[in-house]
Amino acid sequence: MVNRLHGGGVLVTIRDVAKEAGVSTATVSRVINNKGKITKETQAIVERAIKDLSYTPNVLARSLSNRKSYAVAFIVPTITNPFFPEMARAVEDVARDNGYNILLCNTDDKRERFAEYITSLTSQFVDGIIVNSHNMEKSDLEALQKHNIPVVMIDRVLDSDLATSIAVKNREGARMATEHLVEIGCERIAHISGMEEEWNSAQRMWGYRDVVGDLPWFDQSWIGKAAFNVHSGYQVAKEIFSRHPEVDGIFCANDLIAIGTVKAAYEWGKKIPNDLAIVGFDGINMSEQTVPSLTTVLQPIYDMGQLAMEELIKKMEDKEEKPKKYVLDVDLLIRESTMRSSTLQKDI
Amino acid sequence: MVNRLHGGGVLVTIRDVAKEAGVSTATVSRVINNKGKITKETQAIVERAIKDLSYTPNVLARSLSNRKSYAVAFIVPTITNPFFPEMARAVEDVARDNGYNILLCNTDDKRERFAEYITSLTSQFVDGIIVNSHNMEKSDLEALQKHNIPVVMIDRVLDSDLATSIAVKNREGARMATEHLVEIGCERIAHISGMEEEWNSAQRMWGYRDVVGDLPWFDQSWIGKAAFNVHSGYQVAKEIFSRHPEVDGIFCANDLIAIGTVKAAYEWGKKIPNDLAIVGFDGINMSEQTVPSLTTVLQPIYDMGQLAMEELIKKMEDKEEKPKKYVLDVDLLIRESTMRSSTLQKDI
DNA sequence: CTGAAAGCGCTTACAG
DNA sequence: CTGAAAGCGCTTACAG
User: What is the CATH number of the domain that holds A204?
Assistant: First the structure.
């Protein structure tokens, strides 16, 4: 009764265990899952047999019976942006504690890639989805809903009551960042934003405009558009330097852009923070570890991942029906890139 | 015949499609999988029905029948080390092109966590495993083998013919790095190594010793032990500075440690590269984006991930039996952190 | 070219 | 407390 696989391995099934223990498969299933009443003796016998045959249950078969795979998809633009690994850790920590596995999906912000994932994930393979992408459309949410797959969206509020969403006060954070630059004496403050299609990116730009939008020197040319990565930040910062050599403060839409801006400033000969003060957004670990360390708007990255997974579990396990909307607070972390009058070396 | 899920959703099965099209489930299965001969007409009818019911096959059921889940585990110490996201992208790119999904597993270098994953993964949930961890033991490989789950190990050569391994010339790379420091004039060269249990970490240390081990000033106190992250590198660098203020070059076992060393040097008032030249290892993207940019030993990170997944696919699809051992070349990338006589600003 | 039926390895009402 | 049997949703020899 033991199946030989073509590869040469041997697959022990619940049937083999039942035979070995002299009981039915139902009984074996019960001891494995600790369900129903069983006498100490039969339990011992079954456990003995499981050990002897070094049996491990086939989770695929179990999943099919239970209609539950204990797998969850984590969809991100790209895991190479350090923001997402930090969040992934939180998601995975909660997932593991609850017996779930994480499927990693990178979309590169491409609608096509995203749509492929949604299609493949609706095939009953995952029990739920955590998504961090501006590619989600209403129709996706409906398809997911139809297949009974709950969704938690992070950092992206698609206005829908089909999914729980978790975001931060992007606009307020951006305002804090820009006001901080004003307070330390910056008089020409530029902004490097992320892609306009990104909701959070747009919010951060508006926060910046809330502060400088009415000042006499301001016009659109003070806003540069970058992608959320270092290289793009570096390039756009240089464009701003040549357009506005008098710039003395930059609020960057994320920390990676800020790191690129630091590099551009260094090459351009601008001293940080005295010639140019820089503020980032996100509060990734790296923001503290660069030279100079970055002033930034801290999102509670780990907490967001944790909350997302916890909410998703509630929905998957049917204890909750109504999607919720979280909007979390952010903090301004003041570090070297804006510390003009500190005891630290003033410039790099 | 349509099943109503408790959540309110509706699950369309192959049976519903068959009924709708007036054919057997076997036929539906054949058109879905493009197997066997079918007339154009029945195919059209079936496709019509699939569309009308917006049917998607249940991959769990398919997996159970096929004994193939099209899922692969990617096991890493922690995805927050940027080395792994870069590799994960390669793995996922190849995986996606071949219809596989990636399960993300962080072990934090803990044997216990690792063992839990191995146990859970042997339950037929994944078709193969790519592992980057020094926690793998011979018994794990045997268990995996027993369950017919092929393994590719990266950056870690556990001497076994049960798994394919992919590594780089760690010792040679370390030698190149240290020799480079000698060549630019460093006379007291320290090393900050990773954890000793790590095979690659040990190799890099030996490469360093190959170059400086016989010099009169050398002793064990020139080697600091860190974990593979920025904060640890920062701390150990400071220890070295106070133990050996005369240090003028440091070879760090990875780029994160090097980034921490840059920060420590900055705080300590040591100018890079003239007071202190620094070389890292790995060649993560960030190594190019710091100020100063880091001289480093470049591993072909993306290629390694790609190769790993390609090899794994071969093994999963049974075209290959014999495990292989790859040992790839590395390159020394010379950048600002060791450019003592360049036209760049000399110091930061 | 197509269908009836058995099988993948579990789980779980339903009896007893 | 335990077992026989049906079912989860697919796939695939085997007939025809």
Answer: 3.40.50.2300
How many CB atoms sit inside 10 A of residue B246's CB? 8
Instruction: Point out the least confidently predicted range of A27-41, A259-273, B197-211, B291-305.
Output: A27-41
Q: Which domain-ending residue is among A19, A51, A66?
A: A66
Q: For chain B, how many structural domains are there in total?
A: 3
Could B60 and A59 be called an inter-chain contact, meaning their C-beta atoms sit closer than 8 Å? no
pLDDT over 80 at B341, yes or no: no
Instruction: Pick A10 or B144 by higher pLDDT.
Output: B144
pTM of the shown model: 0.91
Range of the domain at B60: 2-66
3-state secondary structure of B74: strand
**Element housing A143 (H / E):** helix A138-146
Query: Residues of A from 53 to 92 whose C-beta is within 7 A of strand D: which are they?
Result: 61, 64-65, 67
Q: Residue A254 corresponds to which amino acid?
A: N
Q: Is A271 left (phi over 0), alpha (psi -120 to 50) or beta?
A: beta
Q: Which of A:36-95 have CB within 8 Å of B? A: 54, 56-61, 63-64, 67, 69, 71, 74, 78-80, 82, 84-86, 88-89, 92
**Same domain for B32 and B85:** no
pLDDT tens-digit readout, B269-288: 999 999 999 999 999 999 99
In a shared domain, residues A103 and A154: yes
Of all residues in chain B, the one with the smallest CA distance to A104 is: B102
Residue A120 lies in a domain: yes
* Residue B259 at interface with chain A, using a CB cutoff of 8 Å: yes
